[in-house]
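Q: Could you write out the predicted structure for this multi-component system? I'm mainly interested in how the pieces pack against one another.
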Amino acid sequence: MTSPLLEFQNLRMAIGDRPILREVTLSVAAGEAVGLVGESGSGKSMTVKSVVRLLPSAASVSGAVLFEGTDVNALGPKELRRLRSRDVAMVFQDPRATVNPVHTIGHFLTEVLRDQGMSRSEALRKVGGLLADVGVDRVERRLRQRPHELSGGLLQRVVIAAALATEPKLILADEPTTALDVTTQEEVVAILDEQRHRRGTALLFISHDLELAAAVCDRIAVMYAGEIVEILPAARLHEDARHPYTRALLRSRPGTVAPGERLETVPGTPQSAADAPAGCVFADRCPQAEKDCRTTRPVLLPLGTGLAACHLLERNA
Amino acid sequence: MTVLALAFPKKLARIPWVPAIAGAVCAIAVLVAVLAPWLAPHDPNAVDPLNAYAAFSPEHPLGTDDLGRDLLSRLIMGSRTSLAGPLIVVLAAGVAGTALAISAAWFGGWFDAAVSRVLDILFAFPGLVLAITVAAIFGAGFVAPVVALSVGYLPMIARVMRAAALRERSLPYIEALRVQGFSGWHICRRHLLPNLAPLLVVQAAIGFGYAMIDLASISFLGLGLQPPAADWGLMIANGQPSILAGFPQQSLEAAIAVVITVVAFTVVAERLAERFGGGVR
């Protein structure tokens, strides 16, 4: 593998003495799509936000987030702004909340380009083309409308077009479809996927939907309580999942049992990094946990097609 | 007067046709002030002792004062300083207060704490007392009370704007803008400010009524504009001896002008507050 575009090296984060991320090591190659999957509070969003240093001021960080070999946390204000405005773009969960309601769509889309010194007409031409690319009709009219005049799905397409406008090397997508209804979800994800492939942009895709992530991404990283417990190729998700947590998640999907039967669940409730046991983060909820699972923490080790952090798997390997 | 002028507008603003009339009154008041020299039928300072205390007549529709000056002309000319004073106060307090509020909300931390404490201290001084003190020290006139009142009104506006700016700053779209690499200056100016503008307008409109009464009070106490200037507050004060002589026109007419204007502006402010939310004390 060539040197990765983005690399998290033993990233740890805490707010005060409350841990948020226990240890995150993950890399994204240029043009690659990596899905970050986990329950609420597992630290997915924080991991992604650390790429553009969008962290609470009280957060203390150790380890490194390397973008093209440079540690993001060591950047000066000017370089950070450059990274944010040119190299990385972000698509958020709820387009309604993340677009300023007082400005027009045209203003929203051209703002970054204008800020980078592009002329108004040139910027408008460029974003007009982008809107057409992401499947928005009546572009001229849309550019003059305001966010509240567009549907959620349409607005999220606009946000994707805004993310593409600066021709970034990496797009961070933080549950981009959670706020949309199911039928628009598919369209939006398909557009994101298509445009990303066409431009060779890398993608870090957050989702709590394993299937969705597997459909869009090349590799899947499963997070639990501030730690990545398993990384595996998306295409081999069902066959090669080894970690007890990933397998429990896969078992609890609809469609695994006959209609009318109760779905399987992962026993217990999701834990945050602060509540998880000192050893393996999943030990409290793992049906096969043994004594040393609670005391010593497993590390990510190559297993078959992927990587997994689990003592049981180590022993059986 | 203060109670009369400021307590009723809230109820008045709910009656459907009242805000429209109040808006019209405001517009007329501003027009009269701008066009005063062309509208005044007489020279407001032309003394005519033989015609003192004249009753209403076609020549002097609102009568004359103790020196025989035409009261209508004096009211019309007086609208200029009477409206310009509060306008300058709310403009100055609004601009400075909003700038302080946004920077405090944006930078947070010790800067926000320092700004907030200073505003609290300023807030403890009633604007009117501050203005009277300043006028007493720097001399009576137009400038000193207006400047002092601007400082006095700053915390009122700044505190409301800071709370709104804090709320606005925590919204996701601000975070999204930061991820796009915009500078704090750009985000504050192009995004925070337009979103806070309606609230600022409401605050300024409410402050206008209060400032007008405060400035009239200062003139009444003799610390504002000096005779023979035509100013509503001053006219109320100067008309006092005449009231005892049985000719209340001067004080009464000026007071009515103040009350009508203040009520009209405050009703409009209340209507705006209902429309855009927030900002009513």
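A: Regarding packing and overall arrangement: The longest strand of chain A covers residues 18-28.
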